[in-house]
Amino acid sequence: MISILDIVDYEHIPEKKRYGDRHGTYICPVCGHDMDINYAKNCFKCFKCNSGGGILDLFGFCEIPGYDKRDYPKNSHQSKELFKKIINTLQIDTRPLQRHNYISHYSPKPNPIASVAVRDAVYSAMLQACILDETDKNSLKARGFNEFEIKKLGFKSVPQFQSKIVIKKITQMIGITDFTGMPGFYKKDGNWNFLDWMEGFFIPIRNEHGKIVALQTRMRHFSKKYLFFSSSDKTCGTSSGSPACVFGKPAETVYITEGPIKGALFYKYTRKTILSVPGVNSTSNLFEILEEWRKIGTKKIRIAYDMDWMKNSHVKKALDNLSKTLRNKGFQINYLNWNPEFKGIDDMLFHMWLSQKGIVQFTAKYKSINTLFPFINKVLKNGGKEIRIIVNQDKYSEKCLQKIQKVYKSCLVTKHANVITITV
């Protein structure tokens, strides 16, 4: 039987890190960013360009220019021919196939997902039992949220290695002891646990009625920044289904963007209804929502994907596929464009909000802090009242503060966490 690792070996796909005997991180052959390969399920997924699939797809992306998995439907003549090509290629190739040593485990069948009411109750109690630490709070503030919004949206830090304590609190609050069907929860040694090893914070994913239907985790130190709170490959585990996050009520015009953080900030600044999909190709329940809304008056769709679609052919292809599908369903489609200096719609709106208040914000590393001084001088010369500098690496923020204080002695220079503020 062919393993997906046979393709990895044959194509010399670089391995970055292996997480036990189930999956690992590799370099995506399509975009060059990180992708996850699940050994037990023989599948892969890139969370940058959203390429994914099984053995045939990985081979296709590597060997066939312009490969599109839709051209190779399951059990079709095309897919069977491609499979034969894989067999023949692996057999005739003179390079030795060095199989990775890994233990093949039975991948348990995930449970059907719990009802919306149960998910909302469990996740609400779970978030209530967690706290939001200062690092994550400052990260959210740097994105443009204030204290009230952070609390209202329900962001909470992942309770590292405290799942048993949190589960006990959930049971005390709502009386639930069986977490079957809850994405992120699973059984280990007969006891319920959830994924609690990540450093980062939970993002509640809400439906059109404001109910929490899933959680997404914003990771601190991983190249794959966003990860759904899901446990489909674990005992008694469940997949999240990767649902879209809804901000606002059904309207004649609805906006679509990528990521719940972007969606929340867009709604904050515009108060216009927006649906946030988890990835450019991840439109899980998007069409289901829009089909229901179309019946009650939604006619126009405005797509606000990141501006890198102009340079990234894979994002552009996903954008074209989305707009084509929506047009076929009877919607009027338009793209939102803005200054490409700002990658996301949230970056552009936050910049406009800061500008109205006379605030300019930069992001920098300690090694490049000196390169900001000409820009800071220009801002001050043009009458800027406040400059914020977000230092990417917390451990260097104190050194950055000292360096900036020496240069701008006539200004008030303060630091809160990793944010340095220069006030005239």
What would you note in describing this structure?
By secondary structure, this protein is of the alpha+beta class. The protein has 13 helices and 20 strands. The chain has helices spanning 4-11, 55-63, 77-92, 116-128, 134-143, 147-153, 163-174, 260-270, 286-294, 313-328, 345-356, 373-381, 397-407; strands spanning 15-19, 23-27, 34-38, 43-46, 52-53, 156-157, 185-188, 191-194, 200-206, 212-219, 226-228, 245-247, 253-258, 274-277, 300-303, 332-335, 359-364, 386-391, 412-416, 419-423. The strands form five sheets. The chain has a five-stranded antiparallel β-sheet, covered by helices on one side. A five-stranded mixed β-sheet has the order 12-14-13-15-16, with helices on both faces. The chain has a four-stranded antiparallel β-sheet with strand order 6-9-10-11, with helices on one face. Strand 1 and strand 2 form a beta hairpin. Helix 1 packs parallel to helix 2 (55-63), helix 4 crosses helix 7 and helix 8 (260-270) packs parallel to helix 11 (345-356). The protein starts with a helix and ends with a strand. Residues 92-107 have low confidence and may be disordered.
Protein topology:
Elements: H1 4-11, E1 15-19, E2 23-27, E3 34-38, E4 43-46, E5 52-53, H2 55-63, H3 77-92, H4 116-128, H5 134-143, H6 147-153, E6 156-157, H7 163-174, E7 185-188, E8 191-194, E9 200-206, E10 212-219, E11 226-228, E12 245-247, E13 253-258, H8 260-270, E14 274-277, H9 286-294, E15 300-303, H10 313-328, E16 332-335, H11 345-356, E17 359-364, H12 373-381, E18 386-391, H13 397-407, E19 412-416, E20 419-423
Parallel strand pairs: 13-14, 13-15, 15-16, 17-18
Antiparallel strand pairs: 1-2, 2-3, 3-4, 4-5, 6-9, 7-8, 9-10, 10-11, 12-14, 18-20, 19-20
